[in-house]
Amino acid sequence: MSVIRVRGGNPLYGRVSVQGAKNAVLPILAASIINGGKSVIHNCPDLTDVRISVDILEHLGCRTQYENGTLTIDSSEMTECSIPHELMNRLRSSVIFNGALINRMGRSCTSYPGGCNLGHRPIDLHLNAFSKLGIITTEEHGSITCVADSITPCRIFLGFPSVGATENIMLSSCRSNGVTRIVNAAREPEIVDLQGFLNSMGANITGAGTDVIEIRGVSKFHDCEYSVIPDRIVAATYMAAVVVAGGRVEIANIIPNHISAFIAVMRECGASVTVRDNSLVITAPTYIRPVRMINTLPYPGFPTDAQSLIMTVMSLAKGTSIIRENIFCGRFTHAAELIRMGADIDISDKMAVIRGVRSLSGCSVKAADLRSGAALVVAALASDGETEISNVCYIDRGYQDFEKTLSALGADIERIETVD
Ligand code: UD1
pLDDT tier at 18 (50, 70, 90 boundaries)? Predict the structure, then answer.
């Protein structure tokens, strides 16, 4: 067990380079089994979720090698099509392996996935899409078995632009005898990256990044080499950290368009943000202005994954802000911990009303999921005294060298191993 201990009050100065995107690399790792050959994946972050995915790949019979941010996967000798519950349960995005396994093996046997605790996370959109594609799904005793001799190309309208369901349709249908069209598809940059990766191994997919994706089925795939996009939420995390702690930081290795909504809100808060081609420089405001209303929305709207970060920033604003969480229920777990640190927040259903306070005060807090954990570290950077954040395992799912990076910028932060 470990905790992160922060003594707040130090402004941040310097430069950070943003890691590869967790939410892009995870579906790409699942997709790597499709070509039955070698996939070389650059800019692959070293995260717990990536390690669990690698464990799944090895369980399936793939050979893997990780060196200097490059993961090589050889799926030529893959034999397995089932993933045991102990592995499925450790990772929410393990559900994505279903589409890839159906593509490669014509069959998958998995269980309901695990992952962050963001309230009820159904997979009905995935299963309905599978059924339209001619995949026969049986659910029994918590297990899901999917079987398909071949894929039936079709038009699939998603009632909600689910990221995971869009990915599963792309993965399962790119080997077929016709065109599958996803209407009201998710438009997230991670979907564009999955299209790029699948096309690099021979798939023929167009439209990712818009709400209609066309997947022209192919029958052959080949070895590939690909570089993962930078993590837009990690970039947002460092921006939020500068705004609350003070200072000026260059955030490099980003795609500025991917974080337009977050940059706009940072500017509304009073921060100065200078955007360059692949980097930006953010300077903290003298005081944080409140933001009247933030709605989390599918991309390109304000990301739900950055909601905890903006709540932390608003906790220290000069005035009242409102956040409406529209994507996940149960995604305000960080609010109770921020209140323990002195924040003034009222939650009612999907709404949070945040009345900014002058300062937060350090205490012991607990991360309840990945992004709430990151938000608590950000809050701690601006708090009086010492904060100890436990359940660090959540933070390790998505942030590589988090405390080392913040420490290099001037934060007083360390990881302490504790004895249970
Ligand atoms: C992905 C991201 C997650 C991000 C989310 C929304 C990964 C590994 N995770 O999660 O970080 O917060 O997108 O941007 O990429 N839903 C259903 N039925 C389904 C599927 C989803 O009702 O079959 C609902 C969910 O409960 C949720 C909403 O749709 O309320 C969004 O889910 P989805 O877009 O699928 O998110 P994930 O792919 O799980």
Answer: very high
As given in the structure block, the two tokens for residue 162 are 């689910």
- pLDDT per position as a tens digit, 80-129: 999 998 888 888 778 899 999 999 999 999 987 654 555 557 889 999 99
Nearest CA to ligand 1 atom 34: 162
The pick from 29, 90, 158, 163 for probing ligand 1's pocket by mutation, whose C-beta has the most ligand atoms within 8 angstroms, reads 163
Alpha-carbon distance 69 to 318, whole Å?
A: 42
Neighbouring C-beta atoms of residue 418, cutoff 10 Å: 10
Catalytic residue among 44, 62, 116, 174: 116
315-333 mean pLDDT: 94
> Looking at the domain covering 22-227, what would its CATH class be?
alpha beta
Task: Name the strand (E) or helix (H) holding 147.
Answer: strand 143-147
324 membership: H or E segment, kind and range: strand 320-324
Question: Which amino acid residue places its CA nearest to atom 25 of ligand 1?
Answer: 121
Mean pLDDT, the chain, as a whole number?
95
Annotated active-site residue 116? The verdict is yes
3-state secondary structure 239-267: HHHHHHHCEEEEEECCCHHHHHHHHHHHH
Q: Which CATH superfamily is domain 2-19+230-417 in?
A: Enolpyruvate transferase domain (3.65.10.10)
Query: Which of 108, 86, 116 has the alpha carbon at shortest distance from 22?
Result: 116
Buried b (16+ CB within 10 A) or exposed e, 299-335: beebbbbbbbbbbbbbbbbeeebbbebbbbeebbbbb
Residue nearest atom 22 in ligand 1 by C-alpha distance: 122
Q: Is the pLDDT of residue 409 over 60?
A: yes
22-227 has the same fold as 2-19+230-417: yes
Domain ranges of the chain: 2-19+230-417, 22-227
Please state, in angstroms and rounded to a whole number, the distance separating the CA atoms of residues 352 and 290: 13
List pLDDT tens digits, range 355-390: 999 999 999 999 999 999 999 999 999 999 999 999
Please say whether the beta carbons of 108 and 145 come within 8 A. yes
Q: Kindly give the pairing relationship between strand 386-390 and strand 364-366.
A: parallel
Instruction: Please tell me the distance from the alpha carbon of residue 190 to that of residue 193, in angstroms, as a whole number.
Output: 5
